[in-house]
């Protein structure tokens, strides 16, 4: 079983679409990880309610039940991200430059759609957890990194793509150095995508990522 998670920006927030009503979509993905920056888009309330019930049912009986994605409007997600970045400037100075670049990339990508909705498909990563409670606790911990009341305890980061940012779902190109193409309907894996550069730029992102990787562990454990 795979362990990929996905972040989608969608041009429609309709709950159901007829086959002929394809919506524009663009996606990021990560394998065997939960990108920390994605959780800056959420609040803890998004991990409860109907989504939590559906996830618990799917965890208990994956053959019969399917975990739906977490869904929220782009405007709400954008406001959450802005708040997270402001807090990170004071509480997580080692992460703040990377988050600023990621925010610039996702905002630019959303404007191209334009995006109306964000969907997070996270359930496959629960394969690494022994219980639904353990997985949900991990997700809440990631949200609290950005929106919790206290300076967070952040786990060390080994791989920037799978643990912080995600990559282009169609091409595995790095994000936000390369912005994915929007597609009509759900993108098929392996299709070519044009390469656009975010405001931060590939060179700047690479330098910041290398610097961050060298200091994050010591800073968080100190």
Number of helical stretches of at least 4 residues: 6
SSE arrangement, N to C? EEHEHHEHHEEH
> In whole angstroms, how far apart are the ends?
37 Å
Question: How would you state the average pLDDT, rounded?
Answer: 83
What is the count of structural domains?
1
The biggest beta sheet is recorded as:
6 strands, antiparallel
Q: Briefly note the structural class of the backbone.
A: alpha+beta
Q: Please give the share of residues in helix.
A: 40-55%
| Poorly predicted spans | 187-205, 207-222
Radius of gyration: 17 Å
Q: What percent of residues are in strands?
A: 5-15%
Principal-axes shape call: globular
Q: What is the strand tally?
A: 6
Name the descriptors.
alpha+beta, 222 residues
Describe the structure in your own words.
With 222 residues, the chain is an alpha+beta fold. The protein has one domain. Helix content is 40%, strand content 13%. It contains 6 helices and 6 strands. Strands 1, 2, 3, 4, 5 and 6 form a 6-stranded antiparallel sheet that branches. Helix 2 packs antiparallel against helix 3 (96-112). It is globular, with a radius of gyration of 17 Å. It starts with a strand and ends with a helix.
Summarize the SSE layout with pairings.
Blueprint: E1 4-10, E2 24-31, H1 49-60, E3 70-73, H2 74-91, H3 96-112, E4 117-121, H4 132-147, H5 160-165, E5 167-168, E6 183-184, H6 202-221
Antiparallel strand pairs: 1-2, 1-4, 2-5, 2-6, 3-4
